[in-house]
Amino acid sequence: MNKVVDFFDLLSQKTDWLVTRLVFVIIAGLVLVTTSQVVFRVFFTALSWSEELSRYLLVWGTFFGATMAYKRGNHIALTFFIEAFGKKVKSMFNILMNILSIVFFSFVVYYGSQMIKMQVFQISPALSLPMKYIYYCIPVSLCIMIIHSLAGISKEFIGFRNGGEVQ
Amino acid sequence: MITLLFGTFLVLLFLGVPVAIGIGLTSMVVLMSQDTSLIVLPQRMFAGADSFPLVAVPFFILAGDLLAHGKVSEKLVQFADSILGFLKGGLWVVAVMASMFFAAISGSGAATTAAVGTPLIPELRKKNYSGEFSAALIAAGGCTGVVIPPSVPMILYAVIADQSVARLFLNGFIPGALMGLSLIAAALYVAHKNNYPTGAKFSAANIWKTFKGAVWGLMTPVIILGGIFTGFFTPSEAAVIAVDWALFVAIFIYKDMQWRDIFKIVTRSAITMSVIMFIIATSSTLSWILANWQIPSMIANTILSLSENKLVLLLLINVIILLAGIFMETASALIILTPVFLPLVNQLGIDLVHFGLIMVMGLAIGMITPPVAINLYVASTISEIPIEKISKAVIPLMVILVFVLLVITYVPLFFDVII
Amino acid sequence: GGASNEPKNEAPKTEEPKAEAPASEPIVIKLGHTVNEQDPYHYNALRFKELVEQRTNGQVKIEIFPNGVIGDERTLIEGMQVGTVDMGVITNGPIANFLPEIAVFEMPFLFASEAEAYKVLDGEVGQKLLNKLEQVNIKGLAFTERGFRNLTNSKRPVKTPADAKGLKIRVMENPVYIDTFKALGVNAVPMAWQEALTAFQSGAVEGQENPINVAFAFKLYESHKYLTFTRHSYAPASILMSKKLFDSLDKETQEIMVSVAKETAQMTRDWIADEMEKQLQVLRDNGMEIEENADIPAFQEAVKPVYEKYGSKFGSLIEEINKAK
Ligand code: NA
Ligand code: NA
Fold it and tell me: How confident is the model at residue A17 (pLDDT cuts 50, 70, 90)?
């Protein structure tokens, strides 16, 4: 059991380390691209791809950033109801929440991949990028959230065994 | 289907499932019950986040965070305190005025709340102002973001209802100012009731001293507003200029920012931004479902069939707008409901620009009515105060804004006043 | 299941019954577009609805979703591919993201008149491209119309390319348009339309290029004083259907769909032509100065590099079009 927990925990940590760097690059890129958009339009000639790239960086930042928020428990939730219970029940609610989330993520990952399969032809208007690459952010980021959920669940199980305390 | 939708959503919320995921799961259940392909989920989630005006959201959060780190926002608050400190709750007045100011820059409620809340909420707490009420006030102030021009929803309305954008914008100032002033009145009342201490004593010397300290921060709005009005950049782009300026001040003026700090601030802002954007993304799925099965129009038509009296109908229209605002994000509600109302509004002989203001104001209030309440989520994420606490604190402010909405509905006194 | 019946009769709180459809249950088709109810696309959608419902004796019902309520043009096309959206009236530009060859119609000064465009679009070349959409799971029913695109701006009257030089003009995010305007010496700014509407007001962008009906619908006279009949490009639109849905219809209904689409497309073209004079009068009455005799040969000369750059991309298509005109 401890091995399973350690595995998911480590996987979740390492992925998050990587995603944090990726998100930093995305946001820095977003600042750079949007600034260039203004500078080039005003002082030189307008860039043809900057608006589209900004939007796609925002989408990527959104979904990968959402994995970081998920790992840190930052997504907004109503907690007053489950706060009313004891530790054990709260743990169970937490496991249930993670399972429900995994259900949602899995469906979106599956259908996101279906969508990508159907979009082999579509290209983006300004950058002429295949849309499938841009769409990849959805299944990939939701897979990462599944990893974080599994890590969360396995920690709760350890907690049960040790009498309600999360290690 | 409606029962299934609301039932699922409420159960998920009470189980503590994050709002964004709860909205997504609800959409999933409804789509399954209607035998519709679940490809709608990833497709709408992508489309919901894929919008250039939304780029302002991360930028305003980032700019606010950078200013807060560089002590710029602290100095700004000291300056504000030197002017309004003689008032109990003076800093709340500043917060609402800042919201109205940013409303004149940004076209969305979320961006306005983020721009004001990120630097101000921590400072207000340092000065022992109630965190919950501060967050609620700034969320409510964010509603003026779409009423005071520029405004994305007003542009949408102008197009659908075939009205002049310029005339809508022009007539947005007074309702927006009225919303702001009533929020200021509410804040002053709360501060007096709870006997808040006054701040700095009013003295010209102190104003001058704090002004000198705050001058770099005060340049931020000057640059942004100047850039927009001279046509250098669009309101959405203005947000990135704010980031550039904040970085410039932190690195070259105050020289107090290390590479490590920048990394930390950027990733922290990214998390805040993505919490909001993830809700916007999954809400987009729910909006699609509501539109596709024409649920808002169905409910609206049922309610409107209750009366034929003009004054009553106006009230019913307000009720529908507020109801829609509870469950839907502003833009979707607007494009779905406007065509439903237009024939009736024409028949009643109501000026369509006046009606546009009613729509936009009513839906703006929806930004602080949970469960789909983007401004509250922004305020909650920034302040780290649980959403249910902010929701409770915002109720009186919501009531006040509804009152202003009714005034604007029934008293079109302020109409086409040239400013 | 759909909540599509008359809404006033019953309270909407009950769940929709999932009835097994008997043979007489009408097929409900949801048609989306992204413009308002005064637009030619909506006119086309309404006529299509009327004629289809009439000719199928109510066996097919059309529900229209204007204003982009169920998605922008790109996502409407995707929805049709997957089957979550049934039909759409869609501008040519976004379709080209799915079928690049169809962008050939965006080439500058390809058609000199509406008649020329109709001949090509309704003829062999047009039909070939519509059929090719089946490769991406879309059934192309007919070409309808957005119209010839013209330049408006807030700065100065434009008669020759030299007058347009340096103007900041919003263009669609489409390489052909961008290069066309770059070739004219214009500072071509690709920008989403909504963002552009704000940018016109502040002057961050000084002009745009669209058919007259767009200048009219968006009251561009509020920010732009000058309109030039550049007619630099003819924008078709298409009536599209999900191929999945089309294949599921019986032969007779399929034929009705295609023929009604073609008929209503022609009705829409006629309607646009009729409306144009009235719209131009409104633009004039609101103070717009209209240049009707632009130096078209000079514009054509200036955009030659665009043909050099993109001509080969479209293979023999441009030649075929020129032959068919
Ligand atoms: Na605004
Ligand atoms: Na709401």
Answer: very high
pLDDT score at A70 = 95
Place of tokens 């237009």: B342
- Please, are residues C61 and C53 in contact by the beta-carbon 8 Å criterion? yes
Cβ contact C200:C224 at 8 Å: yes
Alpha-carbon span B78 to B85, nearest angstrom: 9
Q: Is residue A166 part of a domain?
A: no
Q: What is the ipTM of this complex?
A: 0.87
Domain count, chain A: 1
The Cα C108–Cα C105 span in angstroms is 8
Residue C194 with chain B: CB contacts under 8 Å:
53, 152, 155-156
In terms of phi and psi (left: phi > 0; alpha: psi -120 to 50; beta: otherwise), the region of C142 is beta
Cα of B92 from ligand 2 centre, angstroms:
24
Banded model confidence at residue A121, pLDDT cuts 50, 70, 90? confident
Domain range annotation of chain B: 1-38, 39-415
Q: Judge whether residue C2 has pLDDT over 70.
A: no
Among the bound ligands, name the one nearest to the CA of residue B99.
1
| Distance (Å, whole) CA C184 – CA C186 | 5
**CB of A38 less than 8 A from some CB of C:** no
Q: Do B234 and C195 touch (CB under 8 A)?
A: yes
Which of A41, A51, A75 should be substituted to probe chain B, the one whose Cβ sees the most B Cβ atoms within 10 Å? A75
Give contacts of A 45-64 with C, CB under 8 A: 45-46, 48-49, 51-52
Is the CB of A121 inside 8 Å of chain C's CB atoms? yes
Most C-contacting residue of A37, A41, A111 (CB-CB within 10 A), to test interface: A41
Distance CA B164, CA B170 (A): 10
pLDDT for residue C20 is more than 60:
no
Residues of A in contact with C175 (CB under 8 A): 48, 125-126, 128
The pLDDT assigned to A83 comes to: 80
Neighbour tally for A84: CB within 10 Å:
9
Cβ separation A125–C192 shorter than 8 A = no
CA distance B33 to chain A (A): 15
> Would residue A167 count as lying in a domain?
no
**A45 domain residue, yes or no:** yes
User: Which residues from C are below 8 Å from B33, CB to CB?
Assistant: 18
Give the mean model confidence (pLDDT) for residues A50-56: 93
Q: Could you tell me which residues are beta bridge partners of residue C239?
A: C89, C142
**Rounded to two decimals, what is the model's pTM?**
0.87
**With 80 as the cut, is the pLDDT of residue C139 above it?**
yes
Give domain status of residue A59, yes or no.
yes
Predicted pLDDT of residue C18: 43
- Say which amino acid occupies B76: L
Nearest by CB: C81 against A49, A118, A125: A118
Q: What is the dihedral sign for C-alpha B46, C77, C194, C62?
A: negative
Contacts of C37 in chain B (CB under 8 A): 160, 339
Please state, in angstroms and rounded to a whole number, the distance separating the CA atoms of residues A65 and A55: 15
Instruction: Give the domain range for residue A45.
Output: 2-161
